[in-house]
UniProtKB/TrEMBL annotation:
Classification lineage: Bacteria, Bacillati, Bacillota, Bacilli, Bacillales
Domain N-acetyltransferase span(s) in chain numbering: 1-104
Keywords: Transferase
UniProt GO molecular function: acyltransferase activity, transferring groups other than amino-acyl groups
The organism of origin for this protein: Rossellomorea marisflavi
Record keyword Transferase present: yes
Protein name per its UniProtKB record: GNAT family N-acetyltransferase
Alphabetized Gene3D superfamilies for the sequence: 3.40.630.30
Pfam hit, one: Acetyltransf_3
Keyword flag Transferase: yes
Length: 109
């Protein structure tokens, strides 16, 4: 898990490894304060976490989950090469489960 600081204030957190709800996959999670949305911080942070997961932890697959209505998060994950594998109802909303394999990541890097 890591936190980002900007001008002395925490602006985000992200984590890996954590086990996804399916009990098998490693999930990347992230949250940013609204005033820091749209500035590229999330893409930079999640890309670094994916690199760490695939290179240092030698993971073969990483997943992420976001609400269907969270178009920015969906776009971020797609821009990093992740693809929707499943939709589920969880936490009171429709969720998209994205996944990326190490092989796919190596091709797109």
């Amino acid at each position: 898990m890591g936190c980002s600081r900007f001008e002395g204030r925490y602006i985000s957190w992200r984590s890996i490894p954590s086990t996804h709800h399916n009990g098998q996959d490693t999930e990347v999670s992230y949250q940013f304060l609204p005033e820091h949305w749209g500035k590229g911080y999330a893409k930079e942070a999640v890309a670094a976490v994916l690199t760490y997961g695939f290179q240092k932890l030698e993971l073969q697959r990483i997943v992420a989950e976001t609400q269907v209505l969270n178009e920015r998060s969906s776009r971020l994950l797609e821009n990093l090469g992740m693809k929707v594998e499943e939709e589920v109802e969880r936490f009171g909303a429709r969720q998209e489960i994205y996944a990326l394999t190490k092989k796919e990541w190596l091709v797109s890097s």
